[in-house]
Structures are given as structure tokens and as C-alpha cells.
Records
---
Amino acid sequence: MAASSASHVAVIGAGIVGLAAALEIQRAGHRVVLIEPDEPGGRQSASYGNGCWLNPGAIMPISLPGLWRKVPGFLLDPTGPFVIRWRDLPRLAGWLLDFVLAGRNWQLVEACARTRFQLCKDAVGEHIALADEAGVPELIRREGLMYVYLDRSEFLAERVWRMRREFGVAFSEVGEAELRSMQPELGERYRFGARLDGGAYVVDPGAYCRALAELALRRGAERVTARATGFDFADGRLRAVLTEAGPVACDKAVIAAGIGSGELARQAGDRVPLISERGYNVVIPEPGFDIPCGLMPSDGLMGVVATRQGLRLAGQVELADVGAPPDWRRTEILLGFARQMFPKLKIDESRLDRWMGHRPSTPDGLPCIGVSSGSADVFHCFGHSHTGLIQAPSSGRLVAALVAGAAPPFDLAPFSAGRFR
Ligand SMILES: Cc1cc2nc3c(=O)[nH]c(=O)nc-3n(C[C@H](O)[C@H](O)[C@H](O)COP(=O)(O)OP(=O)(O)OC[C@H]3O[C@@H](n4cnc5c(N)ncnc54)[C@H](O)[C@@H]3O)c2cc1C
């Protein structure tokens, strides 16, 4: 229904976050123009190449107490799951310090986890509804997600499971016999599983984004295929988003451009420490067996999912400049863990598809969602780091409430860009 006070809202960026926001803003009766230089959910976006996990228990930030002890290893061990490129260290040092400080004690981590839980607790159902509306229900599989451990003591040592239990996130323990019968190909080194029963995964995240973009267009969104470069303000009010193809007239704008958001946020009055935690995936077509649900090995820390293109292994954190060339050795590390996980895995090197992309990351593990400091007409919705796929629908709902001038369902102070001042 078109509200009489309908606004014309530019959504900048058509990854999963911008698309979820655009659909919510339309639902509230506003006109939307999507500004995106590339294909929605195309290879340029994190939303294309992620680990596919829709994890309702994605509550933990990455920075945890004691992390500072591991920083030298991040610099010295190029084969670990988290590496920092030396030559980029001077530029990244400030962010890294804030990152370590954000997780310096458990009170901070638990507060962050509670806030993150708000963004992911209802998200699996919200994704299922979105995929239904877009006519692609088959892209979301509800078989659950399972962490596999070398033994139960590893699982017991992880504080996150205690918190998941406290928050009411459903999970079940899977003993060795059950694990073997569920996944006979799994290497014998893994002897215990913890299964998130309400978890789900997307079998083709790029196609999912394309379907959401088509839904927004069917509902009347316009599409401008260009990069946004800034804003045209008059007396603090927005007149247009400036793009490489000329100004796009609008009266409100949402910055949802993933790693491209930092510069736009700066032009809207906010300096947000946003860097790329670069991540990798490699897809193995016809691996020789199926997997019963999404998996994550405790040693490899990578998402393993049966996608439409094959077995996707996604993970690794590499702190390096956005424009630095990919280091494909990181996909070899993923493949090494996969061989360890599945000794019978069939890998045809000539058919592997390798990808590198940018997790848009703030130091404290929370996105920026809120009104900008420079104008009441520009809103932030970016910085979702490792968990933007699961957090997209709730982020879209929050920013749509702000655009409509409605009260958000919970306190948005932890997401404010002003927290970095
Ligand atoms: C290896 C890896 C594994 C991951 N696994 C998971 C997972 O299993 N589950 C999960 O929940 N999350 C996961 N994530 C995180 C998740 O993918 C991201 O948080 C999420 O995709 C971010 O979405 P986005 O829309 O903000 O950014 P993007 O998907 O990067 O989209 C941003 C879009 O903005 C466009 N853009 C950029 N600059 C401009 C501009 N100036 N003007 C207009 N458009 C612009 C880009 O072209 C792009 O299309 C993973 C990420 C990686 C890298």
C-alpha cells in the first residue's frame, strides 16, 4: 500500500543487506531505487561467496579475551585461519587494537552476544519467508548445521554453547556412533558433533540475491547500474545520491554497500573504522558423496555446505588491503582441511572454482545501523562482517523502521556509528 507520506528511497548496494532493506522499505509503502554498479549478489559481493550458513546461534564476536596473545601468530604463521599481511599492518594497526580491546573481557563479549542475538534469533524464518515470496523456496535448506569436534571436551570448553543454551537456541549433541551413521565419509578424527537444529543454509547465495532483486523490481523498484560517489545535500536535507552516471533524485538514502560503505558514511558525517576481513571459498564439483547438513570442523573453522555448484568450503580471515591480489594458497588450506575431514573426497583440480571476497568488518563485531550524523535523511546499514547473511532480514527491518520514522523494536544504540567517536 502506498502511504501518502511515501518517500523515494535510494538503497546503495544490492548485496543481501541492501536487498533485504529494499524489500522492507517497499513493504512500508515507499518507492525504492537500487543503486548498484554490478549484478546484485554477483561475484564482487560478499553475499555471493559466503559460507551459506543461516546460523540462529551466530552470537559470538570474533574478538574474545586472550586474543592479543595470538596476534604474533597471525603475523608469523601464513597457514593459520587468521593472517595479517605485514605490509598492510601499519594501516590496519588501529583497527586491530580496537578489535582486540572490543573482546578484552567476558562482560563485553556477553553484551555483544546479546545484541547480536537480536539480529539472528528470528532470521531463519525470515529468510524462509523471503525465499518463498521471491519464488525460490528451494534455495534454503533446513537440514540444520553441525559443528564437528575431535572430542566432546572441545565442545564443552566453548563458552558459546552455554550462552546458546541460555538464549534458548536449540541444539543437540551427536555422539560418535550417530555421527558415523549420519556421515560415514567423515574422517575418524572427528568424534563428536553439536547440531544447531533450527539452523539452515542457502544452496546458492548469488541466485538468492538475484531472486530478491527481481522481487524488488517486480514490486516497482527502479535500478540504477552505477557506483554511488556521494550525496547532494541542501540545508542538511538530501536531494540526490551522486553516482558515476549522474545524480539520482531521492529524499532518503540507505548506505548498504558492504566494504564500499566506509567512504559513503564519511560523506554522511561518520568516520567508521570499516576494513575488509578478506575471506575465501573453493567449490568442489561432484565431491563423490552428499553431506546431511551444513558442517564446520573445529580445527578448520570453515563452513562446508552442499551447494548447487558442488561442495563449498568457505572461511579464512586475511587482514590485507582491499585491492591486494588474492592469495590462493588460502584455498589450498581449505582443501587441506577438507581432505582431512573427508579422506574419500574426490577433487578434480581442473574444475575447482576459487573465490575471494570482503567481509565488511567493524572492530566490535556489530554492524552500523542508524541515522547518519550528517543528515536525518541518510541511514547506515553495513558492517555485518562474518554474519551478514543471517543478519540481513532483521537489519533490513530495523533500517526500514528508521526510514519510516517508526520506533525500532529494540535499542539501536549499540549499532550507532557514533560509538566509534
Ligand atoms: C568467506 C566468507 C564466508 C562467510 N560466511 C557467512 C555465513 O556462512 N553466514 C553469514 O551469515 N555470513 C557469512 N559471511 C558474511 C556475509 O557474506 C557478509 O556479511 C554479507 O554478505 C555482507 O552483505 P552486504 O550486502 O553488506 O555486502 P556485499 O554482499 O559485499 O554487497 C555490497 C554491494 O554493494 C555494492 N557497492 C559497493 N560500493 C558501492 C557503491 N559505492 N555504490 C553502489 N554500490 C556499491 C557492491 O558491488 C556489492 O554488490 C561470510 C563472508 C565471507 C567472505
---
Amino acid sequence: MTPALDLRDGLISGRLEEIGRVLLFASGKGGVGKSTLSASTAYLLSSRGSVGVLDLDLHGPSIPALFGIASCSFRESREGLVPAKVDTVHVMSIDSFVRGRGLPARGVRKAETMKDMMAITNFGPLDTLVVDLPPGTGDEFLTALEMFRGREGIVFVTQPSMLSWNVTKRALGIAVAMKSGIAGVIQNMGRPLRQIERDCSKMGVPVLGSIGYHGSISDRPVSRLRGSAFMRELKNVLEAASLL
Ligand SMILES: Nc1ncnc2c1ncn2[C@@H]1O[C@H](COP(=O)(O)OP(=O)(O)OP(=O)(O)O)[C@@H](O)[C@H]1O
Ligand SMILES: [Mg+2]
């Protein structure tokens, strides 16, 4: 039987060839700071190279708000949709298509939507593409692992609590089992927990560092966090991990 031909596969690999690396922000657990860290990392990286952000949180996109805009815009070109730059970062979000509405999608539809977005978006040459994922180990996580395979560095974000870590560890375990590219684990919103370091060392995964709780960052776009203690801590973590 002839294998099914998916025209998007060629398009997606063409797009990825122009991109130096893909940094994915993931976690089993919700609300741990994935979107905040991914948007802030993109912002920091953009002072040193060309950076794009792809918001694949299909049901709960936060990236536009974190860049201080109501919705991401793009320009249509023969080579695809060219995401507008917000500050210094090329930003594309699922929200560009649903425009403030919810996305009622499940199962295969979700993987299809993600592939469509990656195939249709023309970021052009980038040093780094930062991808923001929703929590969990379902469609979005698994599709992203497949779609970016070979190019990915996954940053797992957890709060330094056993409640958060016990869930995030499940997602990390899947990435380890699938031999995905794992950048490491960031503990966010508190003092680092020794148990997380012990577990990571058993799993052979680096702990990249920790970031404290900074109540003042809430609801401020990343451009307004410049020079803040939060950004300094994140910058230190990324530099120590050679991600910046
Ligand atoms: N280091 C921090 N200090 C204080 N607040 C923080 C910190 N990091 C993130 N937050 C806050 O925590 C909340 C959740 O953050 P965010 O939306 O980035 O998490 P998330 O993991 O992307 O959530 P979801 O799983 O729903 O996508 C936000 O209000 C954000 O401002
Ligand atoms: Mg998020």
C-alpha cells in the first residue's frame, strides 16, 4: 500500500531547516509559569539573535497577553503567514485564528491544527523558535515531541513543591522514554527543592536552576519586566545553562 502523503510534512521540515533550535516549554502541571518563562526567554534571547514564539496552547493561549497585545497579527505572503514582530520577537499564536474565542477541538483535530500552524507560518530564518505548550501529556505535548523531533530542547517547568513536581515528573518521564531532547528542569516560584534535584539526577536530567516568587510580575507584559529581579534571575539561569 502506498504510504499516506502529508504535504505539510515537507513544508514543516523546510521551515525547521531555517531555524537553529527549538526551545519547548512544557510541564505536566498547569499554572507553573511555562508561558511567563517562554515569553521572557524569547524576549531575552532577542537581544542576541532572531527569535520567534509559537503559542501552541490551543485551549488557553497566554502569549499575546504576555507581549501586551490583544491578538497577534500576520502578513500574508506567497511563502506563508509572516508573524508580526512584537517588540523584538516574531509572535504567532493559535489566538490569531480564534481571536478571543475558545477552540472546541479534540483528538486528531488538535494535532492537525498544530501541524497546520507550523506549516503555514513563515517565521523565516531564526536562531531560536520558542514554543509554549499547555500542561499535560496529551495531544499537544505528544504532537510537539513528534513535530520538532531532532531539533528540540525541552525546558520542563515545575513549582518547587511535591504536588507540582509529582505531576511534572510524569511528563519528563515520557520525554526521557521517547529519547527527546531535554534541556532540563527549571524550578519556578520558590526556593529550590532538594528532592527535585535528587530525582533529576537519577533520571540523568539537568536542573537548570530556580527562580523565586516575584509577585510584582503579574499581568505585566514581558517588555515591562526589563531590569526586574525576575528577569535577572531568569537570565542567570539561562546563561548558566548555556541557553542564552
Ligand atoms: N516567578 C514567578 N513569580 C511570581 N509569579 C509568577 C512567576 N512565574 C509565573 N508567575 C505567575 O503565575 C501565573 C501562571 O503563570 P503562567 O500562565 O505563565 O503559567 P503556565 O504554566 O503557562 O499556565 P498554564 O498551564 O495554564 O499554561 C501568572 O499569573 C504569572 O504571572
Ligand atoms: Mg501557559
